[in-house]
Amino acid sequence: MPIFGDVLKTAFQKRATLLYPFEKRDVPSDYRGKVEIDYNRCVGCGLCVKDCPAAALELVTLPSGNKKPRYYLARCTFCSQCVESCPRKAIKMTQFYELASYNRRIEVVEPCGISY
Questions:
Q1: Contact in structure between 34 and 99 (CB atoms under 8 Å)
Q2: Which one of 19, 70, 75, 92 has the fewest CB atoms closer than 10 angstroms to its CB?
Q3: Taking the complete model, does pTM exceed 0.70, yes or no?
Q4: What is the CATH number of the domain that holds 86?
């Protein structure tokens, strides 16, 4: 049977996969991971919200009266359109890619001063 020859031939070769999560691959420098918003630089203009094709950003009003974006991680397609449209460079793409969670609340990034 030819299958046993294939099994013996490949049984002693170096494996082609990583033992994730114990071994992690380096991501490229231009990798588009989780979005990070610097709320100190944000002026609340709303361009990121307007340009987001997945509606992952929503403009909310803080108790102080200022407007800031709320980020929904579960909706984001990581297209980086919000990064391109932000005039203050307050939004950037990180290299963080381990985004799975059992808690939906941590998938929503609230601006300071907002809570459920």
A1: yes
A2: 19
A3: yes
A4: 3.30.70.3270
